[in-house]
Amino acid sequence: MEFLLVFSLYRFILTGILIWDDGDPILKWLERSGADPKETIYIGDTTYDMECAQAAGVDFGLAVWGCRNHAEIQCLRRLERPQEILALLEEDEEA
């Protein structure tokens, strides 16, 4: 993932847009950024986040450090610590 794309996502999240709905905010970000949904992962800590990622057709990573019911939430990746997000970016650069 390119730095610009990561920075763009960071700015998008900071805008305060509620993400947990029918996936529209993620779809709008994908459209604006030109990111490929097949290469995108949305990271969150609630069932609502998971549902939003599913509705947008992107993978979901569970931020376990902020989650109360992590055993009940389906995800592609379980992230135990925020630092693991950086590992995802490094994996992407190696691919």
Automatic annotation (TrEMBL):
The keyword Hydrolase applies. The keyword Hydrolase applies. It comes from the Bacteria. Keywords: Hydrolase. One of its GO terms (molecular function) is hydrolase activity. InterPro entries: HAD-like_sf, HAD_2, HAD_sf. This is HAD hydrolase-like protein. It comes from Paenibacillus albicereus. The lineage of its organism: Bacteria, Bacillati, Bacillota, Bacilli, Bacillales.
